[in-house]
Each structure stands twice: as structure tokens, then as C-alpha cells.
Amino acid sequence: MNQTANRKALFQASCLALIVTSMTFAVRAKLEGVLETDFALSGVEIGLVFAPAFWGFTLAMLIGGPLVDYFGIKKIIWMAFFSHLAGIVLTIFSYDFYSFFAGTLFIGIGNGLVEAACNPLVASMYPENKAKMLNRFHVWFPGGMVIGGVLGYILMDVMNLPWQVLVAMLFIPLVVYAFLFYGKTLPKTERVQMGVSNSQMWKAIISPLFLVMAFCMLLTASTELSTLQRIDGLLKDANVSGILILAFINGIMAIGRAFAGPVVKKLDTTGMLLFSAVFSCIGLILLSYASGTAVFGAAFVFAVGVTYFWPTMLSFVAERIPESGALGLSIIGGLGMLSVSIVLPIMGSFMDGSDSSASTFGYMAFLPALLIFIFLGLFLKFRGTNIAR
Length: 389
Description:
It comes from Echinicola pacifica. With 389 residues, this protein is mainly alpha-helical.
């Protein structure tokens, strides 16, 4: 297999691995009602049982990130496969808080290892188009959530099948991504190719710019993923299917990321982040008041906002702080997921103590509101400057 064909095959395999990751989010969102009824969990307990998907993700990225440079991308990918496998099996056979918690933890670790391996893989394969290709790779996060959301609606709402059947659907992309990666030659990470030393890497990671972006990732990830993870419960009084809204939002996100190239050229990464913060804030405010079909309009504005958050945060670090390497990308992604694990139970307390779950959207709008000011500063600072190589 020539270099171009091998790169294409590896990119496709990475996308399938990300589909498994994203489908788990949609599946959990659909199972919130099951946990509330069959498992008799409160809103706070549901937040806690969902949390290991996020801090497990963080743990895997922070450990897997530096190991990618030392052991290679391939070994981390196979660790992700076996963790995903264990998590899916444990979830199917779960029967209470603790058994579901264990399955969620293994799935979270598998998800984190996928990100720890595949983000630097894509950045290494496409050094000349990092923002474009990382956005294109992350098409399959919302893409997989659309798949999982639609499957959840069809299998559970239309066909009335047991929830375990929905979880078992995760085996399909799991097996496919293992098959696609099997026997392929994977490149070294970009930091290894550049010959950047460990001391240079750590210097980049404690730089003021990296620390600012790390803080921003706490807010961007919570804005997007915390909201989407609890969307079914947040919209339970809005006279609309939360799982269909989840699929709708992620469909918009997938389209936006697929055509990110022209947006990158027009706005640059800092402009994209500022744009995202503004629309996310407006979308959350609109969602706090919308009901019925108006929810789709509010969800559209929110989707436009969060579309570029995650991949563009990674792209900014890969482009502006390339010396941070795979560890830098893992820290950024890991902190994002860690923030979600903290915010989910807090959201649960708002939902338990409020007559209208939708009011929680209004509280969440504070996060992108703060980001508007930070990203405006970055936009003014880097406007017209060349990207570091």
C-alpha cells in the first residue's frame, strides 16, 4: 500500500474509532430515562453515574498522551479497542448504579485513548492542513451521535426493544475500526518527527498561552458536551423529543465540520472560537425559553455555535504550540472531559431543584459568555500573524 492510500485508510479507521466514542454519548443520553425509572436514580445520581465517562476519558488521555510518543500510536489504539470492548459488555449486563458505573468507566477510558492516539495521528499525517483535517476527523463525533440518536429513537421508541439492544449496536463500528487498523503502518507523532525534547515539550505546556487555552477548554467542553449529554432530561417539558433534538444538533455540527476548510481560511482559529462562543451563548439563552417546534430553531443556533469548539481548540494548540506534542493535545482534551464530569452533577442539582429543567440552559449560558471576552482578546492578539511551524 502506497503512502497516500495508507494515510487515507488510517484516517478512515480513525473516524470509525471516533464513531464508537460519539455513539456512546448518544446511547447514554437515551438511557437517562431508563436510569431514572428502571434503576431508580435521581438527577444527581445520573450525573454521577455518567461522570466516569468523562473523568475516565481524562485519565486515559493524560496517561495515554505521553505514552503515544514512547510506545507509538498503534499500541494505544489497541488499548482503546479492548477498553471499549470491556465497557460495552459491562454496560449490557449492568443492573444497578455500580455496575453501570463500571461499564461507563471502561467506555470512558476507551474514548480517551482513541482521542489520545488519533488526534496526534491526524495532526502528524496532515501537518499542512491541521485545522481542516482535525475538523474533518471530528465530523464523526457529531456524526456518530446522530447515528446513535436515530438508532435510539428507532430501537427504543418505535420498535420498543430493550435498551441492551441499543448498547449492542456499538459492537458494529468497534469491530470495523479494529479491522481497518489491523496490519497498518502508523507514523510517528509530530513531536518525535520534529525532534522536540522533553524539556521543550514541558516548557510549551506551562507557557501562558497553553494555560489560557487549557482554562478555555474547561468552558468550551462543558458548554457543548454537558448540555448534549443531558439534553433529553433538559427538554422533557418542552413538548419535543430530546433524542431527536440531539440528532438534529449533531447533524448540523457534522455538516459544519465537513466544510470547515473555507471557514478556517476566512476566520482563522481565533476567529472561529470567537464566533462559536457568541452563537453558543445565544443558543443556550434561546433554549431556556423555547418549547415545541421553536426548540429546533434555538437548537440550530446552539449547534452553529458548538460546531467548531472542540476541533478548533485542538487545532489552535497543534498550530500555535506544536512543541507541546501529543501530550499537549491530550491535556487539552482531557481537561475538557474532566470539566464535564464536574458540571454534570451540578446540572443535575439544578434540574432536581427547578420546576423547569430548561432553566438550566440559562445557567449554562454563563460559560460561553465568559469565553466571548477571552477569545476576543486572542483574536485581536493573533489577527494577521503567521502560524508557527
